[in-house]
Amino acid sequence: MSEAAVRVLKSGMRLPPLPTIRDLVKLYQLQALKQLSQNFLMDERITDKIVKSAGRIDERDIVLEVGPGPGGITRSILRRQPEKLILVEKDARFLTSLELLKECAKPLNLQVDIHIEDILRFNMEQHINDTTQRLHLIGNLPFAISTRLIINWFEDLSLRRGAFRRNDTCMTLTFQKEVAERICAPLGDKQRCRLSVMSQIWTQPVMKFTIPGKAFVPKPDVDVGVVKLIPLKQPKTDLPFGLVEKVVRHIFNMRQKYCRRGYGTLFPPEDRDVICFELFKQADVENTLRPFQLSVDECIRLATVYKEFVDKNPHIAFYDFRANKNSTSEFVNNHI
Ligand SMILES: C[S@@+](CC[C@H](N)C(=O)[O-])C[C@H]1O[C@@H](n2cnc3c(N)ncnc32)[C@H](O)[C@@H]1O
To answer: Which residues does the record give as S-adenosyl-L-methionine binding sites (predicted)?
Structure first.
């Protein structure tokens, strides 16, 4: 048994039992909202396993949980006794059950801050001003915002701001299983995409385990993957985030074609072939590889030579191939 669990037992802390979904509906007149991607986990073995995937949580640590809902994962986090738990939930209907947990944690001096807010607008620096404490980000994420949220967090990571002013803030998060597989997809894997490269530039993503859809209430159409994203001590690049994101997005816009095709759409059609030929040579990248065959380092080298080219030809930064009538049909929108 973990030290934290022993402390909980010794201290006599009692967390209220997980309400059944029927209790929830009755007590708080709750109905899962599809637009907020509400799929609840009611099985404590699974919520404990998610929190265990976050690794060691010390008594000085802060945990921020995204979308606690009725508080299944919240209970598992409280049993690990961090110094402070920050809950960010958009749906105010959960306030009552979260307040109940806050009350239970009080005698143990566990601080629980509840924010009824959108995580996409949550100001980390305002709410977490002590960077001497390690922070863990945990959440059974709403599907609707999961990709946007981690891309925002990668940008914060690249700028060492927000939740990432320290370089050891790990993210333990759920995604639709296919998205989780894409995030972790290695070089050459058919699932490899923009999200794989973006994730692997700033973090080491680790697929922890999968949860069958039937474990959730209501049951989603898909299974779920739990991924731990560990920030790299040394990110693979210090190029501006927006520039890297743009180059990687263009490369993967034409997944089935040679990588030079998508990359080429960064440049006007009249000069495209010549510029591409030269830049691939400078970057020492084989221009007939398919996007999924490109390593993270190769993508970064392509971003580096693009930046050098733009520094010498600033107008190229404003070229938008989608605005170019002739090129529109080339665009295959395959974001992730
Ligand atoms: C998949 S449910 C998970 C609920 C709970 N953590 C569990 O595992 O049972 C996602 C939760 O995120 C909340 N949510 C949705 N969009 C949100 C947002 N933009 N910011 C914060 N919470 C959000 C939903 O209301 C819901 O409680």
So the answer is: 39, 41, 67, 89, 118, 140
